[in-house]
Amino acid sequence: MSSQDIPEENLPAEHAGQPGAVSVADEKDPFADPGLPPHEHRIQDIDEQAAKRSERTVALLFTLSMLATVGFIAAFVAIPHDRSIFVFPIGHVSALNFALGLTLGAALFCIGAGAVHWARTLMSDAEIADERHPIEASPEVREKVHADFKQGAKESVLGRRKLIRNTMFGALTLVPLSGVVLLRDLGPLPESKLRHTLWKNGTLLVNMNTNEPLRPSDVAVGSLTFAKPEGLEEHDEEFQTEIAKAALMIVRIQPDNIKDRRELEWSHEGIVAYSKICTHVGCPISLYEQQTHHVLCPCHQSTFDLSDGARVIFGPAGHALPQLRIGVSDEGYLQALGDFAEPVGPAFWERG
């Protein structure tokens, strides 16, 4: 296409001072500056009533976001987690998940839509060409940045359009509450549950393998037996939670070999019961050395001496294994005489 075929209005201006003027490529500057098209005013720039309508639209979107956030919280509290509804064409879905997704999506969408509409209709849309400058921030650059920031803040009309400002702050303040409410799904507060287990006075010690109550004669010297509280079954809903606190190691040691006085008092004929849960990160302890009466955690090699109060003799565990005081029932079965004196589990003392 020759220059004669180009419309006259698209040809470069002859004088740099004219609107839309461009520079022509030459030997010193081989890349011509295409220039900027003439700025076209929007209706909001020349009609205050149109600007007011845009302001109300933005405020409405921010207000809808706030209402959607309140709806999110209300749905989380009011809708049962097991309720389902039919949504075409998806089918049956969880009513709670559907309501939470719908309200949170609406809250975020309205904030985004309000911000976009605000920028497109009320903020300044004049294009400004700026020369490239060195990366280092000279004093002149810093002053220019500050001036540009102040100019941008002025052109955003945030200070003059108080309705937009207030509703935007309200929407941005309420939306994070959705995340705070979701923290409720982490579960109920532990309260004092970490400090107590199912063991209590009179609870029988049940063999984990045979599911039968243990007699003193069932525990041989040098053997390691695992036990659980009477009444705790594997099909129970809370089995994993409770066994993680109540699992026991049963070991029989010659009474003369027990070094710790309290351990001897809390045992029965040399039979001692200690928590199976390592006090490092909660791994189940299962390795027992008969000659030394040491038990080893297989995860990080924490070693405990069961003949000396189950104190830590090696490894990263922070404190000894809790001991359960035991005795014998009238029927001749081993039974607990109370709960653990100390909470079981890893790093409990750091947690609370």
Structure overview:
The protein is built from 8 helices and 13 strands. It has 352 residues and is of the alpha+beta class. It folds into 2 domains: 134 residues; 159 residues, Rieske [2Fe-2S] iron-sulphur domain (Rieske Iron-sulfur Protein, 3-layer Sandwich). The strands form 4 sheets. A 5-stranded antiparallel β-sheet has the order 3-4-5-6-11.
List keywords for this structure.
352 residues; 14% strand; four-stranded antiparallel sheet; 2Fe-2S; electron transport; Rieske Iron-sulfur Protein; respiratory chain; elongated; alpha+beta; transmembrane helix
Describe the structure concisely for a colleague:
The chain has helices at residues 43-46, 48-78, 95-121, 139-155, 162-182, 239-246, 261-265, 348-351; strands at residues 84-87, 91-94, 205-207, 224-229, 248-252, 271-275, 287-289, 294-296, 303-305, 311-314, 323-324, 326-328, 334-336. The protein is α+β, with helices and mostly antiparallel strands and 352 residues long. It has two domains: 43-127 and 138-186; 193-351, Rieske [2Fe-2S] iron-sulphur domain (Rieske Iron-sulfur Protein, 3-layer Sandwich), CATH 2.102.10.
Task: Bin the helical content.
Answer: 25-40%
CATH superfamily of the largest domain: Rieske [2Fe-2S] iron-sulphur domain
Oligomer: single chain
**Order of adjacent strands in the largest pleated sheet:** 3-4-5-6-11
Question: What about the largest sheet?
Answer: 5 strands, antiparallel
3D shape:
elongated
Question: What's the number of domains?
Answer: 2
Flag low-confidence runs.
6-20
**How far do the termini sit from each other?**
81 Å
What is the radius of gyration computed over CA atoms, rounded to a whole number of angstroms?
37 Å
Helices, by number, come to: 8
CATH fold category name of the largest domain: Rieske Iron-sulfur Protein
* Average pLDDT rating: 85
Q: What's the total count of β strands? A: 13
CATH top level assignment of the largest domain: Mainly Beta
Order of helices and strands: HHEEHHHEEHEHEEEEEEEEH
Organism: Streptomyces shenzhenensis
Domain Rieske: 240-335
Subcellular location: Cell membrane
Keywords: 2Fe-2S, Cell membrane, Disulfide bond, Electron transport, Iron, Iron-sulfur, Membrane, Metal-binding, Oxidoreductase, Respiratory chain, Transmembrane, Transmembrane helix, Transport
